[in-house]
Design brief:
66% helix, 73 residues, 0% strand
Length: 73
């Protein structure tokens, strides 16, 4: 099976960018899911709910940057 995506640039630039980085997004989500699994399985050092949210947010954006994903399209 062969699939062809067609975009009318520059009008469809955002859609093109999303499709173009889909592999990076999948990899990022896999790594984030594994981090969440690790916290559930082995515990964490979070002091409270706010500390957990801050750390999870920080780790998420580190993964975004590491994988080179642009989420502000």
């Amino acid at each position: 099976m062969k699939i062809t995506f067609e975009f009318n640039l520059p009008d469809d630039q955002d859609e093109y960018d999303v499709v173009n980085q889909a592999n990076k997004m999948q990899s990022l989500l896999w790594d984030f899911a594994q981090q969440l699994r690790s916290w559930r399985k082995y515990g964490s050092t979070f002091k409270d709910a706010n500390d957990a949210l801050e750390q999870i947010t920080k780790d998420f954006y580190e993964l975004v940057n590491t994988h080179g994903v642009y989420i502000d399209l």
